Amino acid sequence: MSKPKVILFFGFLATFVHRFFCIPMSNRKRIISPSMLSADFGHLERDTKMIDRSAAEWVHIDVMDGVFVPNISFGFPVLKAITESTDKFMDVHLMIVEPEKYVERFAKAGADLVTFHIEATDNVQECIDLIRRSGAKVGVSIKPATPVSAIEHLLPQLDLVLIMSVEPGFGGQSFIEGSTDKVRELRTMIDSKGLSVLIEIDGGVSRHNAGELFEAGCDVLVAGSAVFKAPDPEEEILAMLEA
Ligand code: DX5
Ligand code: ZN
Question: I want to staple 32 with a disulfide (CB 3.0 to 4.6 A). Which of 56, 85, 197, 207 is the partner?
Answer without folding.
Answer: 56
